[in-house]
Amino acid sequence: MKITNWISVSLLAFGLTSCGTDSDSKQKPVPSIQDGDTINQPDTPNIDDSSKETPEKPDPKEPVDNETDTLNCEQTGMDATLNTISFSVNKDTSGNYIITSDDSRAKDIHSLFVTTTDTIVPQNPAADLAGTNYWSIEAEQFGKKGLGMPITYGTVPADSFDTTVAYNGKAGGTSLQELPSPKCLMVSIFYPGNFSWSVFHLKHQ
């Protein structure tokens, strides 16, 4: 009798353990991943990096033009530090550049240069010009009679001579039609009264 009851209790316990609860039997099976199975991933946008252009670095071997040769000249008008004699450069009705000044000393200037803005004009008669010289003139006698005013670009005044070739330029100077355009130009005049330069910047176009 005791043996039968023990077997009944044991079978009852075994049945509860192996069958489990109703909630366990309703759980969804977890799929297993076998070799060769493909896992679907969310679509990702195809980003094309070809449109992103990398800016080219300048070749250090190539020369760099420090001169501003566009319409955006660094400055125009009289130079703030080289302005012993104030003067102006304007075009007349025919398109010629006319150099004028209201300063009474302007008639005594000894030399005039029309160059690029990065040019270094000669600081004495024996010095050379470093840069591009489009036109230059000089009075025949130093300190006695100057170039006078007004001066028209390309026209040599009386009692003076063309020095363009002597200072690395073209014979007779670069004509107005041959001047590169647009271009930033520098007009420099030398006054012997106190051995000073005055400079005017302009945009040629």
Structure overview:
The protein has a domain at 77-204: Immunoglobulin-like. The protein has helices spanning 2-19, 22-25, and strands at 77-83, 88-91, 97-100, 111-116, 133-139, 151-152, 160-162, 183-191, 196-204. The strands form 2 sheets. It has a 6-stranded antiparallel β-sheet, with no helix packed on it. Strands 2-3-6 form a 3-stranded antiparallel β-sheet, with no helix packed on it. Helices cover 11% and strands 25% of the residues. β2 and β3 (97-100) form a beta hairpin. By secondary structure, the chain is α+β, with helices and mostly antiparallel strands.
Layout of secondary structure:
Layout: H1 2-19, H2 22-25, E1 77-83, E2 88-91, E3 97-100, E4 111-116, E5 133-139, E6 151-152, E7 160-162, E8 183-191, E9 196-204
Antiparallel strand pairs: 1-9, 2-3, 3-6, 4-5, 4-8, 5-7, 8-9
Query: How are the strands of the biggest sheet laid out side by side?
Result: 1-9-8-4-5-7
Distance between the termini: 126 Å
Helix-and-strand structural type: alpha+beta
SSE series: HHEEEEEEEEE
Q: Which CATH class of the domain at 77-204?
A: Mainly Beta
> So how many helices?
2
Spans where pLDDT lies below 50 across 5 or more residues: 1-21, 58-70
Radius of gyration: 45 Å
What is the CATH architecture annotation of the domain at 77-204? Sandwich
DSSP E strands, number: 9
What helical percentage do the residues reach? 10-25%
- The fold-level CATH name of the domain at 77-204 is Immunoglobulin-like
Largest sheet properties: 6 strands, antiparallel
Percent in strands? 15-25%
Query: Judging from the principal axes of the Cα atoms, what is the shape?
Result: globular
On the 0 to 100 scale, the average pLDDT is: 79
